Amino acid sequence: MTKESGQNVRMKCEFKGNPTPVEIKWYKNEAPLEIEKGKIEIKHSSSGKGRIQSKLRILRLDTHDMGYYKCEAANSYKTVETIGILKVIRGQYMSSAAALPLPDYQPMIPEFPGLGHGRNRVSDSTHN
Fold first, then answer.
1. What is the Cα–Cα distance from 18 to 101, expressed in whole angstroms?
2. C-alpha distances in angstroms, 9 versus 23, 25, 31, 55, 60?
3. Cα(82)–Cα(24) distance, rounded to whole angstroms?
4. How far is the first Cα of the chain from the last one, in angstroms, to the nearest whole number?
5. I need a labelling partner for 28 at 20 to 30 A (CA). Which of 2, 18, 62, 102 fits?
6. In this protein, which residues make up the domain named Ig-like (predicted)?
7. Model pTM score
8. Whether the Cβ atoms of residue 49 and residue 75 lie closer than 8 Å to each other
9. Which of 27, 4, 24, 1 is nearest to 14 (CA)?
10. Rounded Cα distance, 87 and 7, in Å
């Protein structure tokens, strides 16, 4: 799935087994995913009859959240998994810091003694 930065995303996995799966784990790029208050939420629930589900919610996405997400469930006999890919593209989201006015700095133009001043044009020898 593809989302814009700043958005939230929800992923859900559901497993059924006999005996009921007792453990569900989430991974990002094969590393265990940890709950992070205000950023990553994981909730597990059981609907009975051998079914268990897990919901992953990631808040305020940024490009660092992009990756392969795996949900893995296990009971005493077997471990199974499902994998999804999350792509995060730059969106129109602006953080509160981005809304602050920027100072009015004059552009720096470097001077290189051997080449003259930075405003001089360097010609491209392939287009003579």
1. 60
2. 23, 18, 19, 10, 8
3. 11
4. 48
5. 18
6. 1-81
7. 0.68
8. no
9. 24
10. 12
Fold for domain 2-89?
A: Immunoglobulin-like (2.60.40)
Tell me what the mean pLDDT of segment 92-99 comes to: 52
The full set of domain ranges for the chain reads 2-89
Amino acid at 54: S
Residue 18 tokens read as 């006999």
Question: Which among 64, 78, 68 has a CA at the least distance from the CA of 18?
Answer: 78
Tokens of residue 94, six digits: 């602006």
Token couple for 24 = 């569900």
pLDDT tens-place string over residues 29-88: 999 999 999 999 999 998 888 899 999 999 999 999 999 999 999 999 999 999 999 999
